[in-house]
Structures are given as structure tokens and as C-alpha cells.
Amino acid sequence: MATIAEKVARPEIRQTQCFIGGKWIPSASGKTFDTLHPATEEVIAQVAEGDAADIDLAVDAARAQFDGGEWSKLSARERGNLMLKFADLLEEHADELAALETLDNGKPINDARAGDIPLVIQCIRYYAGWADKIQGDTIPIDGEFFCYTRREPVGVVGQIIPWNFPALMAAWKWGPALATGCTVVMKPAEQTPLTCLRMARLAQHAGIPDGVINVVPGYGPTAGAALVKHPGVDKIAFTGELATAKIIQRAATDTMKRLTFELGGKSPNVIFADADLEAAAAGAHTALYFNQGQCCCAGSRLFVEDRIHDEMVDRLTDMNQQRKLGDPFDPETEQGPQVDQAQFDKIMQYVEYGKEDGAKCVSGGERFGDQGYFVEPTLFTGVTDDMRIAQDEIFGPVLSVMKFSDIDEMVARANNTNFGLAAAVWTRDIGKAHQFAKQVRAGTVWVNCYDVFDSAAPFGGYKESGIGRELGAAGLDAYTENKTVTVALS
Ligand code: ADP
Fold first, then answer.
1. Of all atoms in ligand 1, which is nearest to the CA of residue 243?
2. For the whole prediction, is pTM greater than 0.85?
């Protein structure tokens, strides 16, 4: 008899090669790299290790479709219809994709099933709806002229994505690209290439012409860098670390590529004493520990009004103690492993920094188990703004709790970071909530909630958290050029 907690079966791995012009091909060098299951550290597949030669082929395939190929001749509505078919196929394969994501990334199967994959499907459907609604203006200029604008696809887009939400990041990038009529060369993260490759196959089955979506797995400084430099690529859309974005920005200068970046964060999450404390505590827990703390928008700086500080720390500590870590294929698991050894080491280093800098580790701080890259949910109190755990993005399950009493001072502290991706506030006072939403320098502000994502709502960063927006109508801007046409009427 199956029980609710029965473990989900591991999926079959079907695609491990480069996907170029609709064909599955080994890398030109013949090299492969290992991809691991982070909960057991075992090698699950060898994946083609693409490099500059494979990027060249992929860009040629993408250019051929963009510069007069079948794709360029489809009507906007036909593109939208193909995207709808693609979304339907993703939905048919939702369980398989979720299990593949869990295998490659280590995230709990329930998160992949309830979060990642439904959002992937929603995103492709949302942008399918936009395909035949992207239109220009007519402009009343001086003189006897008819002036109008056309919104045209920007061209071949190089898309470089990270490993924390592999399938979802692919969807965020393919959605607006396909809707606008661009073509794509994607370089997935070397830690997690599998769902992206599987999704590319499903796009092909949906009838999206070969060469429209190309995927070249490989490493950043080789395959990624070749994509960024390639003169046949019109735009780079990147999600990842700030340091990598700076390398990309410099490298893209010579070919004057359009660039969009979605980078890191050190997001402030503020709890006022007048909040619904139970909801706020649950929200603060999710804000940081969701996805093993591997979220660019993680609420990693928790500002708590001083008179509820101790109560809030008690609530959060209790939740940490109850959090179920373990096999990510077990539907009862709430927290899986970090993605790899490097991330695990970095997080443990920050736990040491927290202790060295004088913060108090009140829960966690240790490795969980003896296999896989698991880190206990960790909470520091007595954190001051200058400590490394308060300033740097840790990208792991390490929460820094700080007290505040004065609102203006708290807002200044919340803004005292080079990042500006997200922020949240918990209060029953709507005036205070809107004041905070106005004053905080961040691309997304959640009030009495956290991590609420919808394909229709733009997402992106202020300051060093990024350039441009993804999702929503705003997400189309970076995938279109605006052409002005002026016609003499006499
Ligand atoms: P993360 O911490 O999320 O791994 P990275 O910025 O290192 O952040 O990785 C995000 C993506 O950027 C990955 O696909 C990675 O391979 C790629 N990448 C890393 N270095 C470069 C580079 N020099 N040029 C282009 N892409 C890169």
C-alpha cells in the first residue's frame, strides 16, 4: 500500500548532449563533465562539455532561424500557439521534470512539484499570451508625416543561467525570447544542466523550429565567455553572481551587446511588533530557508523590533529544530542539500565568520549527516551591520537577526547595502507598510508575505542586484528593439 510519504522514483536521464539546430551532438572536443546528485554526491550523468566551437555552431543555428529562417516567417499568433503547445507538453511532463530537478539540484521534491515546475508552465503560457500583443505606437510629430514605431525582436540572445532554479530560470529567459521572436543559445549552469536539456526536447516536440532554442552545457569561463564575446549574439541575459556579471559586462563591451542582469541580494525582512507574529515568524523562516537558502531574494537580514526580538528568536529556533532535512525524494523532506561542495564550504566558512565576528549562533551551524552537502538551518543573533554575515550574500541557510527600535534608523540600515533586489515588511499598520515600501531601495517589496512570484509581476534589482527586469510586460522590453518609421505624407 502506498503511503503519502512514499519516496518519489528517480527519473530516467534522457538528454546529456549539446542541443544545436535540433540535433543532439557531443561537444566538438569530445569532453564531458560529471553532474552529481547533491544528496548522495554520486555521479548521475556525464554531460557534453561545450566550448567555443560548440557555441559557434549554436550561434550559427540561432542566426539562421532569426535571419530569414522558418521562425522569422511565423506570425506572432503562430509563435504564441507553439508556445501554448510547449506549455501543455511541460505540464504533461511536470512530474518527470520535478523529479529531474530534484535529482540534479537536490531540492525537495515537494518544492519542485508545487513551486518550480508550475511556475515554469505558467511563465511559458503567460508569455505565449503576449506574443500577438506586442505593438508599437503612432506618434503625432510636427509636419505632414505619419510616424509610427515597431517593436522588433532584438535578435539572437545568449542566456546564461544559475543552478538554484534551473528549469524556472530557463523559462524566465525563453518566455520573453520566444514571444518576441528572438532565437536563443542557452548556457545552463554546470551544476544543473539536465532540466534545461529536457525542456529543449519538449520545445522541439511542441513544434518550435529547430535552431530557435539551442542549449550548450559547459563551464562559464569557456562556453559562457565564448557566448558573451560572440559577434553573432545581439544580447546577453544573465542570472548569477555579481562578480561574474562584472566580467560579462566588460567582455560584452567590444560588441556593444544589450545586457540584462539579475544578480544577488542581501534582502532586508522587517518585522514590527504590531505584526501577526505567527505569520511573520513563518514568513521569515520561509524567506530565508526556502530552497536551502539558495535564493537571490532570500530574506537574509531579519530586522526585528526590539520588544518582540526574543519571542521571535524563540519561534524561529523552534521552527528550525522541527525542520525536516533529508532525502529530497521523500515528500516529507523540507530541506535538501546545498548544490555542491563549493557552496557547502562557502556557507560553513560564513558560519565561522559569524562566530569570529562576535555573533551568537543560537541554532544549527553544523553539517547535517555524513553524506551529501547538507547544512543545518542556522540562526545568528547579536548581528551588527558591519559583520561579514550581515553584508555578504551567503546563499545558504544562515539567517542574521538584528534588532531595531527607531524606524528611520532601520530604513537607513536596510538600505545600507550595495544590493537592492527584494525587501519585506510585516505590520498591521498599512501606513507604516507603504512608507517602508516607498523608502526601501529594492526591486520587489512584499508586505505581510514573502517569495510571492507570478509571471505577470516584474522582478529585478536596484543597485548591484541587476539591470533590467524579468517577467511581466516589463520583461519584454529587453527583448525588443524600438524602430521609428516616419513617412512623408506629401
Ligand atoms: P552562481 O553562484 O549562481 O554559480 P555564477 O555567476 O558563478 O553564479 O554562475 C552563473 C552562471 O554564469 C553559470 O551558468 C556559470 O557557468 C556562468 N559563468 C561563470 N563564469 C562566467 C564567465 N566568465 N562568463 C560567462 N558565464 C560565466
1. 6
2. yes
